[in-house]
């Protein structure tokens, strides 16, 4: 599903964020990515999303070489993925419903389909009663649920989460993680960058540890062995 | 692009315009000023050109003959001159016709002053050709040619008048082209600034759009529309102004300079607008679209 082959990313300022990284993630996997702050996790996600281009190496998504695709092809690749960030990134002037519908609108989905899909996904993340609220009327956990709903409404094959629980308390974090697990059980490949040691240790999923832009450890049913 | 998407772009573009209304008004203002000046100068230049060509058709050159020239030679000259490509038309005016015309022009209503001239034509050697040119610039060449023909005594030209008008018209043309160029640059700059502000204002939204896989067209569309709407509104306002004041100003000029009646000929507003409208809309929308594309190119790395 996702394959990094010797990928190196050097930022224009000379920082080598990824150093000859190779890894493979299968379809339907649930993978944690852990590592110190500044180790290159976000850069990895950005490479995957085609927000950044690798300087060296090759990136395959769905067995397709997407290392150097034309700018115009990028939206098509992104529609295979949903993304969730630490800071939710909801649009403050739109209701929950419209924030979620937005993802369908801009992919030119028919209005009829939007009206059916949004309530369904909102009830899946447990927000069906709050669809008319604005982001500032929601708790952090609820905002992240809305962001999740937006990320999965296009039925992406891959869900990328960059520290999705970084701003949430432990209990809420668990709820979000359970949701991610639900989504994974429905067949979506889920990649979660996190610092949440307890969750990682409890879930017994594959854990990839990044250190200085390289893969330091990659363990099935691993734990958060990394010392911060 | 789907119609729905186009609708979305228009909707978002207009929302942008409203959110940014001060800059929007400023940009519409400059474009309007720019196109108003285009409209005014276009009207002036067209009318001056129109007058020049009308006057040209009324002021030809008069070709006079040597004393004692035969009618055959006059006919020959007529044929030779008529064949020149510079010539728009040629009319023979006999001495009697010249005298009649003179009497009409200067003694009309005072025919008693002409007693004693009844039988004799005081202009008996004043038979001539009235030659009209298609293009006043060719006058010199033609005059040199005709002057050298045997049988021609002299040529009377009214070149000064037309030359002055012509050079005024050229001056206005160059001046307005320069002015319009400057204004277009200012307008592009202002629009691009407006669009840049909107992009700034919507950075978050644009980012999210990118993450969920919006295409370039989809992201850029609203900004292009924004620029185009500014350009179009900026073109329509001055067109309205010019249309409203055109006839009024012309009738005022006509009243004030009633003595110049023969020289002041104006084009009807319809003739001006048939070209001014598409020109203005093209320039307005062009400025708008180019302005926003420049900004998008620079500030919207999709
Ligand atoms: N846009 C950027 N320009 C330059 N350097 C960057 C940029 N983004 C990140 N970096 C650097 O690249 C390294 C990896 O960053 P990042 O991938 O954000 O790490 P993480 O997400 O694991 O905290 C860090 O040293 C960081 O300072
Ligand atoms: Mg990070």
How would you concisely characterize the structure shown here?
The complex is a heterodimer of chains A (228) and B (302). Chain A has 228 residues and is of the alpha/beta class.
Structure in words:
The complex is a heterodimer of chains A (228) and B (302). With 228 residues, chain A is of the alpha/beta class. Chain A has two domains: 1-80 and 156-228, P-loop containing nucleotide triphosphate hydrolases (Rossmann fold, 3-Layer(aba) Sandwich); 91-154, no CATH class. Chain A has helices spanning 41-48, 74-78, 96-105, 111-124, 140-152, 170-185, 197-203; strands at 2-10, 16-25, 30-34, 56-61, 64-65, 81-85, 158-162, 189-193, 206-211, 214-219. A six-stranded mixed β-sheet of chain A has the order 6-7-8-3-9-10, with helices on both faces. In chain A, helix 3 (96-105) packs across helix 4. Chain A is globular and about 45 Å long. The two termini of chain A are 30 Å apart. Chain B has 302 residues and is an alpha+beta fold. Chain B folds into two domains: 3-55 and 163-299, no CATH class; 60-157, Alpha-Beta Plaits (2-Layer Sandwich). Chain B is 71% helix and 8% strand. Chain B contains nine helices and four strands; from the N terminus they run H-H-E-H-E-H-E-H-E-H-H-H-H. Chain B has helices at residues 3-19, 21-58, 71-82, 95-107, 139-147, 159-201, 203-211, 216-256, 269-299; strands at 61-65, 87-93, 128-133, 152-157. Chain B has a four-stranded antiparallel β-sheet with strand order 2-3-1-4, with helices on both faces. Chain B is elongated. At the A-B interface, helix 2 and helix 3 of A face helix 1 and helix 7 of B.
> What is the number of independent domains of chain A?
2
Report the sheet with the most strands of chain A, covering strand number, pairing sense and barrel closure: 6 strands, mixed
**H/E topology pattern of chain B:** HHEHEHEHEHHHH
The share of residues in helices of chain A is 25-40%
């Amino acid at each position: 599903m996702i394959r990094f082959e010797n990928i190196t990313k050097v930022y224009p300022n000379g920082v080598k964020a990824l150093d000859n990284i190779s890894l493979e993630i299968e379809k339907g996997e649930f993978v944690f990515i852990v590592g110190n702050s500044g180790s290159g996790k976000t850069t990895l996600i950005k490479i995957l999303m085609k927000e950044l281009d690798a300087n060296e190496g090759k990136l395959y998504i769905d067995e397709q070489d997407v290392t150097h695709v034309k700018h115009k092809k990028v939206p098509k690749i992104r529609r295979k993925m949903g993304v969730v960030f630490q800071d939710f990134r909801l649009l403050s002037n739109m209701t929950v419903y419209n924030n979620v519908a937005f993802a369908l609108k801009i992919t030119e989905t028919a209005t009829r389909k939007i009206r059916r899909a949004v309530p369904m996904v909102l009830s899946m993340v447990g927000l069906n009663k709050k669809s008319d609220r604005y982001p500032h009327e929601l708790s952090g956990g609820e905002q992240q649920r809305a962001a999740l709903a937006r990320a999965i409404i296009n039925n992406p094959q891959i869900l990328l989460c960059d520290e999705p629980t970084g701003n949430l308390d432990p209990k809420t974090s668990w709820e979000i993680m359970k949701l991610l697990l639900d989504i994974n059980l429905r067949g979506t490949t889920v990649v979660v960058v996190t610092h949440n040691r307890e969750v990682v240790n409890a879930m017994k999923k594959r854990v990839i540890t990044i250190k200085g832009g390289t893969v330091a450890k990659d363990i099935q049913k691993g734990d958060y062995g990394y010392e911060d | 692009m789907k119609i729905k998407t186009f609708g979305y772009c228009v909707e978002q573009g207009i929302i942008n315009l409203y959110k940014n209304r001060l800059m929007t008004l400023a940009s519409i203002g400059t474009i309007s000023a720019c196109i108003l000046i285009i409209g005014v100068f276009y009207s002036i230049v067209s009318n001056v050109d129109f007058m020049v060509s009308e006057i040209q058709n009324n002021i030809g050159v008069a070709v006079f003959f040597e004393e004692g020239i035969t009618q055959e030679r006059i006919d020959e000259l007529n044929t030779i001159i008529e064949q020149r490509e510079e010539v728009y038309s040629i009319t023979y005016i006999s001495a009697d016709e010249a005298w009649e015309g003179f009497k009409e022009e200067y003694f009309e209503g005072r025919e008693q002053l002409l007693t004693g001239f009844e039988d004799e034509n005081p202009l008996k050697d004043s038979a001539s050709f009235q030659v009209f040119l298609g293009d006043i610039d060719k006058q010199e060449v033609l005059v040199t040619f005709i002057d050298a023909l045997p049988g021609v005594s002299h040529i009377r030209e009214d070149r000064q008048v037309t030359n002055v008008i012509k050079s005024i018209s050229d001056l206005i043309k160059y001046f307005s082209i320069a002015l319009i160029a400057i204004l277009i640059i200012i307008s592009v700059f202002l629009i691009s600034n407006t669009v840049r502000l909107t992009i700034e204002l919507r950075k978050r939204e644009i980012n999210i759009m990118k993450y969920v896989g919006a295409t370039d067209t989809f992201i850029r569309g609203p900004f292009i529309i924004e620029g185009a709407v500014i350009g179009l509104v900026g073109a329509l306002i001055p067109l309205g102004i010019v249309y409203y004041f055109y006839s009024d100003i012309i009738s005022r000029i006509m009243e004030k300079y009633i003595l110049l009646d023969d020289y002041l000929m104006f084009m009807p507003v319809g003739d001006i607008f048939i070209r001014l409208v598409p020109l203005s809309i093209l320039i307005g929308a062009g400025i708008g679209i180019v302005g926003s594309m420049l900004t998008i190119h620079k500030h919207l790395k999709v």
